[in-house]
Structures are given as structure tokens and as C-alpha cells.
Design a protein that fits this description.
The chain contains 15 helices and 22 strands. The chain is an alpha+beta fold and 476 residues long. It has a domain of 64 residues: Dna Ligase, domain 1 (2-Layer Sandwich).
């Protein structure tokens, strides 16, 4: 273990080598297993994922064939007490995000108060003027949210970013658990872990609760996918199947008599709730991008007339903006009247001249991100970048400072992964999935743990060589 790895918070081992409370049951079980049997199980996991078809595509690569999601069979474990503290902070943040969305498209009190600069959304392509003055059914904008968290100490969880547009990855959370239970059923008898397999049922229930008035007791739910070539198509099909909902493409839907209708073998059937995995720009060619073949012509008119629920609501992508993220402490306090229970990572907005000067002077120590970036693309990790890469990014910053924010290089916590040499620490983050409806906020215990499989790497995205592991919240 290197000196830098020793400086990071190890979630399994204390500095004196003792096993932390969360991992005691697992560690006892692991120590009783035969090494050759564990190696076979590690090989089995890859075969399970291959048979199930748990794959993703990487955009922009010449060899853009489907790839397996790398899976590590050592779980990431959180105690019940830790999760209860986390849940309070997550719920507070999601409630504030939803209130923020409503305010941005109505009175804009947070702008009037001077807490948020108007320029942050006036020139923001994620802010949709078509949503001004409209309130979605049930008053819910962020039906499904993914809050990315990192850990730097025993009680130190920080929010790295918010995903309120179309958060992905929940299918991997579910398949990771199913794989672990299939491979190690006796382990789950020894260590009591909170369930995640009921997420699709809870998602369907939450979406149904957001159906427009007049939808009836059993509203029709459909999942809108861009199609089989989308990088997350596996997840779209998986969730539709698990919810008992129809998986549709834009060509399967049309507006008939003021309602969105779905083509079936017996004719057209009304859709009440559309869980869309298509970006705003492509949702309605009559309202947004006229060349889009992925959306439904006229769906925004039906939506604004109260004839369908779209989840998440168009325009929620504003919350994914990393410049907006930097104001989240003020946003949480403004809408809840409480101090944020989950702090942000310190962030420099490069649109500010003083912040830009600091960032340019310290590029080699910072992480720089595009405000609309995702998937680990369009970013610079100063400490692991070459001088040429740093100078290239310096030019980008000077040319378009409004497009970037910067953050310190965090000392991310590490969890063990299984290697041929035994357990080895690797950096991780966590994406809990949160459902919001008029009935309240529902947080799945755990979420998706992404792990940087390369030694020393801080990038956990699957598109950048990261993998996933099962996330356990102990049932204590």
C-alpha cells in the first residue's frame, strides 16, 4: 500500500489494521473461505454478467462495441446508523431541488433575493422557457434523482454532483445484488442486509402516484427509450420489464384526441405516465429539435394541458449544471430554512475572475470539469495529468471560463476489491437513487457503488475503466 493510499480513509480497515464495524461479519466469513474457491467465484461473476447481457456502449470510440460492466465481488458496506444520517441529508437535498425547480419556472424568488445570479440560467440551454408557469402533475419535477456522494472520513460524506435529468445505473445496482445472492447465498444468512430488489415495484408505485388527474386507479406507465443503440438501453429494457411497463420508442407513440397513445397489437392505448430516457432536446420535434426522430410530435402540448406525466419533468437538467451545483448550499438553506446536512465539495466557478485566476495558478493540483460534462469526459485531473494536458486545458479555460468549474483533488475513501493477490484498496463513490412523489421521498438503501479498478485512479466511470460493486446497508 502506497503512502497516498494509507492517507485515504479505508472503509474496511482502521489505521491499526483492525476491521471496522461495518465489515466485521463479512471479514469473518471471507477469512473462512478457500482461496481457490474465491477465484472460481470471481470468474463466475463475469460469466453471469455476460449471460445476463449487462453491457454498455461508449460513445465516440471507433470500436464502440458493447462492453461488459466490470464487477467486483467484495461488497461496499455501510452501517444502519451511517445510512440513517445519510438519508436525512439526501432527503433534504432532493426536497430542495424539487422546490428550486418549481421556483425557477415560476416566481424565481431565489433570483430576486440575490442568492443565485440570473445569468446562470438565462443562458443555460437546460432551462426551458416552455416550462415557465407550468406545474407538473402532483407538483413533482424530480421523480427520480441520483445523488453522487464521496466519502473522505468516518463521518464525512460530500455531494459530488446531482443527477436530476435522467439518472442511470439503477439496473446495475439491482443486478449486482442478484449476482451476489446467487453466488454467496450463505453470506446473506450471516450478514443481514437491507433489500434493494423491490426498487422496480417502488418506482412503479411512485410514478403511478404522479399520474395526472383522471388517469384512474391503475395508470398506464411506459418507458421511452432512444433505442437499442443508446448506451443505457439495457437499463431501459430491464426497468420496463421489472415494472411490468411497456418499453416504447418515439415511433410507437402518437398524439390522438389530445392524449398520448401507444401502439399495441389491438390498437392504440392511452399512456398516463412516461418515464422518458430521452433528453429534452429530442422529446418533441414540434417544440424542441425539429429534426428529432426520437420523440413524440405534440407531446409537450399534451403535457402542458395536463394529459400526461413526463418523468423527470423537462427542464430539470438545470440541476445537473455544475455551476448551479456550486450554489446548492444556498439553495438548500433558501428552500428548507435549514443548513445543509450534506456539504458540497469546495468549488471554484471559473466564470468569476478571481476564481479563474486561482484555478489557472493551481491547475496541477485541481480537478477541472465542464459545467455540463458527464461520464468522466471533458475533465482534467491535475495531479495525474501531463504538462501538455495541463497547458491544453489552460487554453480552454482562458477561451471559455464560463464552461468550467474546479474542485480540489479529494482524498476519496477506498474499499477493498478482489484481486489475484487478495484484497486491495480502490477508490469509490456512491450513487443513491431517490424517488419523489406527492406521497413523499423514498430512498433505496445503498445505491450504486462505482469503483476505480486501476490502482491510484480517482475516475470511477465505467466509460473510463471503472467498475461496480454491490452496496450493502446493514439491517441493524
Amino acid at each position: 500500500m502506497t503512502a497516498s493510499e494509507q492517507a485515504n480513509f479505508n472503509e474496511m480497515y482502521a489505521p491499526d489494521g483492525s476491521v471496522r464495524d461495518a465489515y466485521r461479519g463479512y471479514n469473518e466469513w471471507f477469512g473462512q473461505q478457500n482461496a481457490s474457491w474465491l477465484k472460481r467465484k470471481d470468474f463466475e461473476a463475469e460469466g453471469f454478467f455476460r449471460r445476463t447481457g449487462i453491457t454498455f456502449n461508449v460513445y465516440g470510440e471507433d470500436d464502440a462495441e458493447e462492453r461488459l460492466i466490470p464487477f467486483d465481488m467484495v461488497p461496499r458496506i455501510i452501517t444502519g446508523a451511517e445510512w440513517r444520517r445519510l438519508s436525512k441529508g439526501i432527503e433534504q437535498r432532493v426536497r430542495a431541488l424539487n422546490a428550486f425547480m418549481h421556483d425557477l419556472y415560476h416566481r424565481q424568488e431565489i433570483i430576486r433575493s440575490g442568492r443565485l445570479p440570473e445569468r446562470l440560467f438565462r443562458n443555460n440551454t437546460a432551462w426551458l422557457p416552455q416550462m415557465v408557469g407550468f406545474t407538473p402533475p402532483g407538483g413533482v419535477y424530480t421523480h427520480i434523482t441520483g445523488i453522487d456522494l464521496v466519502r473522505t472520513g468516518p463521518d464525512d460524506f460530500l455531494v459530488l454532483e446531482d443527477n436530476a435529468r435522467t439518472p442511470s445505473g439503477v439496473s446495475y445496482m439491482l443486478e449486482n445484488r442478484e449476482t451476489m445472492m446467487a453466488m454467496f447465498p450463505e453470506l446473506f444468512s450471516k450478514v443481514k442486509v437491507r433489500e434493494v430488489s423491490d426498487y422496480p415495484r417502488r418506482l412503479a408505485k411512485s410514478l403511478a402516484a404522479c399520474a395526472p388527474p383522471g388517469a384512474g386507479a391503475n395508470p398506464n406507465i411506459a418507458v421511452l427509450t432512444p433505442g437499442i443503440y443508446n448506451s443505457a438501453y439495457y437499463e431501459h429494457a430491464f426497468l420496463a420489464d421489472q415494472m411490468g411497463a411497456e418499453l416504447v420508442e418515439g415511433s410507437d407513440l402518437r398524439v390522438v384526441d389530445g392524449k398520448v397513445q401507444m401502439r399495441t397489437t389491438t390498437g392504440f392505448t392511452q399512456v398516463d405516465v412516461l418515464y422518458r430516457r430521452v433528453d429534452d432536446e429530442y422529446l418533441d420535434p414540434l417544440t424542441f429539435n425539429p429534426s428529432s426522430m426520437l420523440g413524440v410530435p405534440g407531446i409537450m402540448d399534451v403535457y402542458r394541458a395536463g394529459g400526461i406525466t413526463i418523468a423527470n419533468a423537462p427542464g430539470t437538467g438545470v440541476a445537473d449544471d455544475k455551476a448551479i451545483y456550486s450554489f446548492m448550499p444556498e439553495i438548500v438553506q433558501f428552500y428548507t430554512g435549514e443548513r445543509p446536512l450534506l456539504p458540497n465539495v469546495d468549488t471554484w466557478r471559473c466564470s468569476d475572475p478571481d476564481s479563474l485566476k486561482y484555478v489557472l495558478d493551481n491547475l496541477a493540483e485541481l480537478v477541472v470539469k465542464e459545467v455540463h460534462g458527464s461520464g468522466g469526459y471533458g475533465m482534467l485531473i491535475g495531479p495525474t495529468s501531463s504538462k501538455k494536458e495541463i497547458e491544453t486545458f489552460r487554453a480552454k479555460l482562458k477561451d471559455d471560463p464560463d464552461n468550467y468549474i474546479a474542485q480540489p483533488t479529494l482524498s476519496l475513501s477506498s474499499c477493498p476489491i478482489y484481486t489475484k493477490q487478495g484484497l486491495a484498496p480502490r477508490h469509490v463513490d456512491l450513487r443513491p437513487f431517490v424517488l419523489c412523489s406527492p406521497q413523499g421521498v423514498d430512498i433505496t438503501p445503498g445505491g450504486l457503488t462505482r469503483v476505480a479498478l486501476k490502482k491510484g485512479s480517482l475516475v470511477v466511470n465505467s466509460s473510463q475503466g471503472g467498475g461496480t460493486k454491490d452496496s450493502w446497508v446493514l439491517d441493524d
